[in-house]
Amino acid sequence: MPYKKIKLRNPSNAEKKAFLFLMQSLKIPINEAQKLIDKKRLFCNGNLVEKKNEILQGVVELIIYENAPKGVKIVYENEEFAVLEKPSGILSHPNGRNCAYSLCDEIWELWGREACVAHRLDKETSGLILVAKTKKSQVEFKAMFEKRAIQKEYLALTQGLTKKEFEVDLAMALTQNYDDVKTRMQISPQGKRALSFFERVEFYPDFNASLVLCKPFTGRQHQLRLHLFHSGYKILGEPLYGLKKEQVEQILDGKLSQEERVKLTGAKRLMLHSQRLHFYYKGKEFDIGSKEELWKEFCGDKI
Q1: Among this protein's residues, is 38 annotated catalytic?
Q2: 51-72: b (≥16 Cβ within 10 Å) or e
Q3: Hey, what's the signal peptide range on this chain (predicted)?
């Protein structure tokens, strides 16, 4: 497991407030100390510390994340940022103590704890992901994503023959059915605007599948997935949309075999791939494309 508990030294065994103890022991600013407490990482004499002003005396322990790198493809790298090929099935960021591996294992091993993903991809989405190496570049890229200054393109394999070109301009919101899967989104006029453009690149009649170029002009959660599903073109391997709650839970909990999932959804994974990133940074143009071939992963050598 990537998380382990370590003891923090308190040489004089003096009473100190929790946030101050962390700041002095780890040489970190107050906001980072508060984050560790909020994330329930700090313990004193075996008891969870939940308040920043809580007085600590005795054995102080901290849960930390240990890197467990497996190797990752670096597509581009300079001093400020890097672009990686994220495999399908890998989280962009650890989501709790039961997360055995995430892309952060690779990022922190390569460039240290200051580096982080500048945006996120769904766990099952593969492809290009931008990594900010410094705090400064992290702030800059976050602002660029918020201003839509970074253009993203995806490739998807969908069921059936799609239209040659089509646009979807439908607002989205988190599902309000609390008996449903909590991460599932829905089309809703009360939600935030979501605009996507789609273009069929190829149709594979032997598989009844279309290779579709997807361009999101807004950045909503599951935007491309829901817009395609709503248009009648479900992405192959889709684990959320178009399935019953029980089926979704079986997939998310890993209770279906690969063969069962292929039979249910058409593919062993969500066939959505981050294909291209295009932006200007510090006066220079960057147009970075993925070298992975999504369609070959699905169709093999039959095309």
Answers
A1: no
A2: ebebebeeebbbeebeeeeeeb
A3: none
Specify if 228 maps to a domain.
Answer: yes
pTM of the model: 0.83
Residue 76 lies in a domain: yes
With 0-12 / 13-18 / 19 or more C-beta atoms within 10 angstroms meaning exposed / middle / buried, residue 194 is buried
Residue whose entry in the numeric block shows the structure tokens 């994220």 = 86
Residue 284, domain member (yes or no): no
Tens digits of residue pLDDT in 203-249: 999 999 999 999 999 999 999 999 999 999 999 999 999 999 999 99
Burial code (b: 16+ CB inside 10 Å, e: under 16) for 19-36 equals bebbbeeeeeeeeebbeb
- Residues 57/66/1/240 CA torsion (nearest 10 deg): 110
Residue 47 forms part of a structural domain: yes
Q: How many domains does the chain have?
A: 3
Domain of 24?
A: 3-65
Give long-range contacts, CB 8 A cutoff, 24+ apart: 20-28.
Answer: 21/56, 21/60, 22/62, 25/60
Domain boundary among 147, 177, 193: 147
